[in-house]
## 1
Amino acid sequence: MTLPTLIPASKLPNVGTTIFAIMSGLANEHDAVNLSQGFPDFLCSEKLIELVSRAMRDGKNQYAPMPGDPILRQRISQKVEKLYNLNIDPNSEITITAGGTQALFTALGAFVHPGDEVIIIEPAYDSYKPSIELFGGKAIPYALMAPDYEINWAELEKLISPATRILMFNNPQNPTGQVFSANDIAALRQIIIKHNLLLISDEVYEHLTFDGLQHESVLKYPDLYERSMVIFSFGKTYHNTGWKIGYCIAPAELTKEFRKVHQFNVFSANTPVQSAYADFMLDENEYLKLPNFYQTKRDYLLQSMHGSAFKPLVCKGSYFQLFDYSNISDMNDVEFCKWLIINHGVAAIPLSVFYTNPPDDRVIRLCFAKKEHTLRMAADRLKDIILM
Ligand SMILES: Cc1ncc(COP(=O)(O)O)c(C=O)c1O
């Protein structure tokens, strides 16, 4: 006789330990240069650290208002007006969150009902699918394909069914480094309006576009914004991903629902850090310099890898660079990444883990949000690997 188990069935039966934990664990074990996870290995601004300390000393240590520090929200609305020419009400359209991931989770929690379908564009940030599933929804993947990772909008539209409620869009895109154009946004806009969908637009890499490309924020398109929740992350902008502060911009009606979930999810985000960001945002140069800052790092990595057997794919934005290793090995990408750590001391992320149905590609992702010394060390090791 089998005894009834005390533990109810898993709500996420297909989710295991994330590849990031696995690769970082293996990287530590083998003392590898870690270009796997997406975070800087350099310090954030000393001034910002000082502002947080000052906020703490000034007694800003208790709960922030549920929607976020009012001055921070005001500064965000000024930034949005300046960059995207959209006038938003800081009181009813901006909510400060504990990072972009929480904002994504809360947006899905507010609107996904059991049985709803949510279209995601893969390879996708790994929180999307499990978050949809936790709320009883079904993720419907559209697969971007190497080497261009372009969207065929007519094909994507075929995935829409009477159960489709939401489309999730990420621009600039992790992990591909793709930056979608004004033409893409025009196609997206047409689909969202025609099928009466909600849009969750993940723009955490808004400042990381290269070679003169402009970020096409959904906030630039008022009739698209009307149906959107747009997600940002201070951690990505100010080099402190561990501080976990982000925000969601959405029209008042959507924000009202978003906050119903937010208030019982985290209630409010870290007070002194919000206060510090509010002051730090006054210097717009801190974010305007980012395209150049990260483009220099991308180019440094590419130059350092020049002459290696790895083939770089086009990186237009984000802080990830893809490399094709088909000239080196037939191994699948997960095995290849483990082999890279153990035999060559460099940790990368296999692209297949970002897909529901991975194509049979030989592509890995490297994060270049690192010091030049780190990038050089990784490239020197990778250049030692010769053609098959
Ligand atoms: C596409 C994308 N969205 C959201 C996030 C999460 O942002 P945060 O660190 O603020 O939670 C990340 C972080 O890697 C990301 O790559």
Note: The pocket of pyridoxal-5'-phosphate is lined by residues 38, 99-101, 125, 170, 174, 202, 204, 233, 235, 241, 246 (CB under 6 Å).
## 2
Amino acid sequence: MAQDIGPKRELLIELLIDKIPKELHIHIPHRWWFIGDVLITTIPEKLKQYRSAVGEAFLQLEPKRARTALGKTGPTRGITREPSFDYLAGDKNTETIHKELGCFFKLDAAKLTFSPGNHFERERMLNVVKSNEFIIDMFSCVGNLSLPLAVHKSPKQVIAAEINSLAFKYLEENIQLNKVSNVMKAIEGDNRVILKDYEGKADRVIAGYLHSDEEQIRQAVRLCNNNSIFHYHIAITRKKEKQADVMTDIKRLIESEGRICSRMIRKRVKKYAPGVEHIVLDIEID
Ligand SMILES: C[S@@+](CC[C@H](N)C(=O)[O-])C[C@H]1O[C@@H](n2cnc3c(N)ncnc32)[C@H](O)[C@@H]1O
């Protein structure tokens, strides 16, 4: 979860008072968040040369919570969504265990995505999933969306696909760490290829990746049984949503697979970029 400013930012400024010229104090970060004991912030261009000092100040500010400080330098990259972080201060080992929703997520915070902005979606999923479901997570990372379901929702089975071998390694570890290997199975590879055996089996399919291509959406529909829900995540500008009417397009695609879309609900997950929203469509497929 992102942490907000207030008195803590005042303290941070005090810690940096002799280290950064006064006219630059306005650029001292307003926001920081944690993945396990790794503190992450954004360092504005004007503070780049003071980044070690800022990192050290954060470690002093959060002595109990922060072992390492990282600075976000740009957007996540490529299909594996690797984050762009600069080391700021503290321990250079960025492997950590993030605790959230009663689960342990082990990961390398500098190399893998775990978005604080998706917290409410992870929590929401716990409220919509029922027990005894067959769930397929097409873009699992370290179990971000599906691990809590395995831990708390007594599923029939969770199948978690992941293409990035580092994320897959942690996904397998997290299944053990959270003692859910009886209900959750990780499969390494491209979800367009490796999930064929599960077509028609899923009560619920999660596509928690904002850049799914048509083949992946078709694969998701084929995984669905005749009374299922497909959680389709997408990044979209408000303007584009109006113009292209995403919901109509996805409905047509589902129908072209010989299936029926009986209901579709749109939920906002977070702001993704200026003017762009991360939304999720909960699509009932018969
Ligand atoms: C942005 S992360 C999403 C993690 C999680 N679903 C969430 O919402 O927090 C997307 C993950 O999908 C994986 N991925 C991308 N393309 C894939 C593919 N074709 N097959 C399986 N996994 C894929 C990436 O490696 C990455 O770990």
Note: The domain at 114-285 is CATH 3.40.50.150 (Rossmann fold).
